[in-house]
Write a structure and sequence with these properties.
Oligomer: heterodimer
Number of helices of chain A: 8
Order of helices and strands of chain B: HHHHHHHH
Shape of chain B: globular
Radius of gyration of chain A: 22 Å
Number of helices of chain B: 8
Order of helices and strands of chain A: HHHHHHHH
Number of strands of chain A: 0
Radius of gyration of chain B: 18 Å
Shape of chain A: extended
Number of strands of chain B: 0
Largest sheet of chain B: none
Distance between the termini of chain A: 76 Å
């Protein structure tokens, strides 16, 4: 076997060997799995509304149920298989947020229950919360600037 | 309490939800395949984008149209944070900007922490396959 000599030939070699990612198929899978997760959420939401629960609480209940399901599916190693198949279809819905908390926590379990599980839970979810919460506070502050009547002294 | 199952399985609302939720996921999939963004960065991007669009009042139209198709993806999480911050400001001014967002999404964050911890406890650490 010839050794791979230059970067060029190495690149060609990798391109030849690595499977080309079929973007259309990925998008199709992401579409229907993502759509399905949202539809399950909508069914839960509709049931809550039929029970005369107000709309904000309905949304919270949907989030809690979906997060709970996906957290335990991740713990049982089932969610990773769905994720491999669906890509963004399971990553982008709130299920991906729960998955991003559980998978690093599982991986670092050997480092202990406080710093291992408790600390590594937030390797991905931490940035999401930092940027999400910061953005929401900034939105609130900008809203104050543009609606000066709404300022009541705290 | 009686539940009207015809309202629960209202086809029109479910189809809208399915299509919009699916399209948001396709956008994420294109970002994964066509750019070098890591999944973590895509999650951050979607939440921030949702908060910005929510703050501008654009995302509300999508939520009205698609329901959970717009609120279940992470952009909806960001939208919820921004909506909460604005409502907090309306209720109690400057303090509300800080408390409103987290208050509105407290259920999701708290349940993610609790279920995440429990699920990690029950999981068996898998051996890395060589």
């Amino acid at each position: 076997m010839n050794p791979i000599e230059s970067q060029e030939t190495y690149k060609q070699y990798v391109d030849k060997k690595s499977p080309n990612s079929p973007i259309l198929k990925n998008c199709f899978n992401a579409f229907w799995v993502g759509g399905l997760i949202c539809t399950i959420g909508q069914i839960i939401f509709n049931i809550c509304q039929e029970r005369q629960i107000d709309e904000t609480s309905c949304g919270t209940i949907v989030s809690i149920i979906l997060i709970g399901i996906s957290a335990f599916l991740t713990g049982l190693n089932i969610f990773n298989k769905i994720g491999k198949f669906a890509g963004a279809g399971s990553l982008i819905p709130i299920t991906g947020f729960a998955n991003s908390i559980v998978s690093p926590a599982m991986e670092y379990k050997s480092e202990g229950y406080v710093m291992g599980v408790g600390g590594k839970m937030f390797t991905v979810a931490g940035p999401v919360l930092v940027f999400g919460i910061s953005a929401s506070i900034i939105v609130g502050l900008i809203y104050i600037i543009f609606n000066t009547q709404s300022i009541t002294l705290v | 309490m009686n539940i009207n199952w015809a309202n629960v399985f209202d086809v029109m609302s479910l189809v809208k939800c399915f299509v919009v939720g699916g399209i948001i996921c396709i956008i994420g999939q294109i970002l994964i395949d066509k750019t070098k963004l890591t999944p973590a960065r895509i999650l951050v991007l979607f939440v921030t984008l949702g908060a910005v669009l929510g703050g501008l009042g654009i995302y509300k139209y999508l939520v009205d149209f698609a329901g959970c198709g717009a609120t279940v993806p992470l952009t909806g999480f960001g939208y919820n944070l921004a909506k909460g911050a604005i409502e907090g400001v309306q209720e109690m001014g400057l303090l509300g900007a800080f408390t409103g967002g987290v208050k509105a999404s407290a259920g999701g964050i708290a349940s993610a922490v609790l279920f995440g911890y429990f699920a990690s406890l029950i999981s068996k650490p898998k051996m890395k396959k060589q």
